C-alpha cells in the first residue's frame, strides 16, 4: 500500500511587467478615498449642535436652466452659493468682535457638502460651564441666521450682471435649516471626522420640515432661549410625526409652514 503523500505543486509565479505594475498602482491610487472607508475610526462621545441646510426648488431651477440650454448659470449659482457660509461667518465675527468666545469655537467643527445642501457640526467643549454652554448655543443659532440672511442678500434684488450670471429664476429659490443639540459619536478617521447618532438624524428630519423656508430647531436644545424673550422671531409647535421621533417640540421661524 502506497502511503506516500502526493507532492504539492507550487504554482509558478506569473511574471508581471513593469507596465502592469504601473497600471495596477495607478488604479489603486484612484481608489484612495474609497479605500479609506476600511480604516477603523477612533470613536468618542461628544456633545454637539448639528445643522443641515438645503435649497428649496433647486431641482426645478436646474431643470429650467437646462431646458434653456443655460447650464453655465447653474455653475455660477453654485460657485456663489458655496461662499455664503464663509462670508456669513466673517460678517458675524465683525459684528461680534467683543464676544466672550474665541471665534474658532463658533466656527463649525466639521462641515460636509451634500449637493446643494450642507451638514455642519459644532462640538460643545466639555469644560464649559452650563451658563457658557447656553451662551455658545445662542451664538451658534445667531450664526445660522447669518447664513440664512447671506443667502437672500445674494439671490434677491439682482443686479443686471447677477441676472445674466444666474437668471431671475434664482429669486424663486429658498433655503431651509434644521438644528438639534445632543449626544453624538465622533468618528475620527485621522484625516477626516464624522458624527453619528440620533441628534444627527433629528437635525436632518427638522431640516426637511423647514419649508418653504426658515429654521426649525429642537426646542430642548435651548428652552431658556426660546422661552425667555427670544432674540429671534418665531413660534413653538409640537411635531407629532417626525420620521423616527414622536412628539418633538420645535421652535421655528415665522416663515415655516407645518402642514397638519
Account of the protein in words:
This protein has 260 residues and is α+β, with helices and mostly antiparallel strands. It has one domain: Nucleotide cyclase, GGDEF domain (Alpha-Beta Plaits, 2-Layer Sandwich). The chain contains 10 helices and 8 strands. The protein has helices at 18-30, 32-35, 58-67, 71-81, 84-95, 103-106, 130-154, 160-166, 198-209, 223-227; strands at residues 42-56, 110-114, 117-123, 174-188, 193-196, 214-218, 234-239, 248-253. Strands 1, 2, 3, 4, 5, 6, 7 and 8 form an 8-stranded mixed β-sheet that branches. Strand 7 and strand 8 form a beta hairpin. Helix 5 crosses helix 7. The longest helix is centred in the middle third of the chain and has 25 residues, at 130-154.
Write the layout of secondary structure elements.
Blueprint: H1 18-30, H2 32-35, E1 42-56, H3 58-67, H4 71-81, H5 84-95, H6 103-106, E2 110-114, E3 117-123, H7 130-154, H8 160-166, E4 174-188, E5 193-196, H9 198-209, E6 214-218, H10 223-227, E7 234-239, E8 248-253
Parallel strand pairs: 4-6
Antiparallel strand pairs: 1-3, 1-4, 2-3, 4-5, 6-8, 7-8
Amino acid at each position: 500500500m502506497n502511503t506516500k503523500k502526493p507532492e504539492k505543486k507550487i504554482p509558478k509565479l506569473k511574471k508581471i511587467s513593469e507596465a502592469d505594475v504601473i497600471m495596477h498602482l495607478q488604479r489603486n491610487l484612484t481608489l484612495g478615498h474609497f479605500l479609506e472607508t476600511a480604516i477603523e475610526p477612533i470613536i468618542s462621545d461628544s456633545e454637539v449642535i448639528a445643522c443641515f441646510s438645503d435649497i428649496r426648488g433647486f431641482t426645478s431651477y436646474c431643470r429650467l436652466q437646462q431646458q434653456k440650454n443655460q447650464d453655465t448659470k447653474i455653475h455660477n449659482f453654485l460657485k456663489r452659493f458655496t461662499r455664503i457660509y464663509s462670508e456669513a461667518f466673517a460678517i458675524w465675527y465683525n459684528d461680534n468682535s467683543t464676544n466672550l468666545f474665541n471665534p474658532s469655537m463658533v466656527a463649525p467643527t466639521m462641515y460636509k457638502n451634500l449637493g446643494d445642501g450642507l451638514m455642519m457640526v459644532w462640538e460643545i467643549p466639555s469644560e464649559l460651564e452650563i451658563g457658557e454652554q447656553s451662551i455658545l448655543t445662542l451664538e451658534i443659532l445667531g450664526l445660522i441666521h447669518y447664513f440664512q440672511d447671506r443667502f437672500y442678500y445674494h439671490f434677491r434684488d439682482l443686479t443686471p450682471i447677477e441676472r445674466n450670471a444666474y437668471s431671475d429664476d434664482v429669486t424663486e429659490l429658498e433655503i431651509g435649516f434644521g438644528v438639534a443639540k445632543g449626544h453624538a459619536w465622533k468618528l475620527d478617521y485621522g484625516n477626516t471626522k464624522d458624527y453619528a447618532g440620533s441628534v444627527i438624524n433629528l437635525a436632518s428630519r427638522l431640516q426637511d420640515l423647514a419649508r418653504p423656508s426658515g429654521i426649525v430647531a429642537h426646542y430642548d436644545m435651548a428652552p431658556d432661549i426660546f422661552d425667555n424673550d427670544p432674540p429671534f422671531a418665531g413660534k413653538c409647535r409640537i411635531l407629532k410625526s417626525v420620521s423616527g421621533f414622536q412628539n418633538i417640540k420645535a421652535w421655528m421661524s415665522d416663515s415655516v409652514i407645518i402642514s397638519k
